[in-house]
Design brief:
- The protein is mainly alpha-helical.
- The chain has one domain (14-158).
- Helix content is 87%, strand content 0%.
- It has helices at 10-127, 137-158.
- It is rod-shaped, with a radius of gyration of 58 Å.
- The termini are far apart.
Length: 161
């Protein structure tokens, strides 16, 4: 007896295989779509990373510019303070020089007027025929020297006390 071979329902298997092949094709299509989307997303991530790097560089540049601006501001503050102090010191120095110059002019003027008066008197006595000191050079020299010394002592010693 021969056993009969069971009849296989090939059509059913072929339909299942076709269905599975269809599903495989669909999955492959979805896989391809996902790969394309993944590539697009990867490109977008790279673009975003590039944009972030550019923004970080801009932020670094801005931070550096802020630091340099702060240095310039501090330098300007110091310069303004120096100018203010320098101007005040300069004005004080000029005022002091002005006062010293006025004092020196007054002293010189007084000295000159006093010496002029005493020299005039000494020369008048020297050339006065009626005076006992007529043509006595010794008296003239002594009078002039005494007048100059007295005035110098008054100017430099008495005025400074």
């Amino acid at each position: 007896m021969l056993k009969e071979k069971p009849k296989l329902d090939i059509k059913k298997y072929e339909d299942q295989i076709a269905s599975l092949n269809g599903q495989i094709a669909t999955l492959e299509n979805e896989n391809d779509s996902l790969m394309i989307e993944s590539a697009v997303l990867f490109n977008q991530v790279q673009q975003y990373n590039s944009a972030i790097d550019s923004l970080n560089q801009v932020l670094d540049d801005i931070q550096e510019e802020i630091e340099q601006t702060q240095i310039v501001i501090e330098a300007k503050k110091v310069l303004n303070e120096t100018n203010k102090n320098g101007t005040d010191s300069y004005l004080k120095a000029l005022t002091s020089i002005n006062e010293s110059t006025k004092d020196a002019i007054t002293i010189t003027k007084t000295f000159g007027e006093t010496i002029e008066g005493k020299l005039t008197n000494a020369f008048v006595d020297f050339f006065d025929i009626t005076n006992k000191k007529f043509l006595e050079f010794k008296n003239l020299a002594m009078s002039v020297t005494q007048a100059v010394i007295r005035e110098l002592v008054e100017v430099y010693v008495l005025n400074q006390l």
